[in-house]
Amino acid sequence: MIVAVLGLGEAGARIATDLAAAGCAVQGWDPVRQPAGIDNASSALDAVRSADVVLSVNAAAVALDVAAGVAGELGRDTVYADLNTAAPQLKRELAATLPVVFADVALVGVVPATGLATRALASGAGAERFAALFQPLGMPVEVVGPQPGDAAGLKLLRSVFMKGMAAAALESFEAAKAAGVEGRVHADIAAVIGEPLLERLFSGSRAHAARRVDEMRAAAAYLEELGVDPRIASASADWLAQLRDESEQVGFAG
Predict the structure, then answer these.
(1) For the whole model, what pTM was predicted?
(2) Which tens digit of pLDDT belongs to each residue from 58-96?
(3) CB atoms within 10 A of CB 144
(4) Domains of the chain, with CATH numbers?
């Protein structure tokens, strides 16, 4: 199977490496990153030519432009799968843009750690075929609905809880530092959710703040679409935006 991977960041590079190890012919493309050990195409168009499957693993902000840019080079039987965390509406727009079957794929887990073994939810016209192709390669794919956006919506609802819990821990710890009791509060929270998860919430929120701001804003928009006031999702987005801004200021100062 020939797989084009568009986007070779942490997640895309790990998935591309695992696919190559599983025997797939991988054609990767990223405008910035060219990881070692991956066959890097000269452009997105070159990457998707002759591909049986295209995996878009870049960012929700550019997903539509990327899809539109390669649409004319896709083979008639190609499956185009968008793995970005995005609003259901964006997934529907992607499906309408592409001339081939589309799979909305939501990755549920820490992709850089688990790679191709990351649990995935899939929906849309190409979901069943995506599952049939990737389950034998070791990806636990669950088809969750017929419409593009069904998988994305489920991922965002999970994100409200996970990122909301991270925001609550961050706020609690910020207040604990101000009160001079951060050690005690850290221990109390760790006793409830475990030290590994607590550390993941802290480190992951800081390391991936910019991407997660977009994720939680998409989650807030989806909740509003469902008629639910996105109080937690909006607060989480605000916390992440603060972390993003602080990180950018540190980087600029350095």
Answers:
(1) 0.88
(2) 989 899 999 999 999 999 999 999 999 999 999 999 999
(3) 18
(4) 2-145 (3.40.50.720), 153-253 (1.10.1040.10)
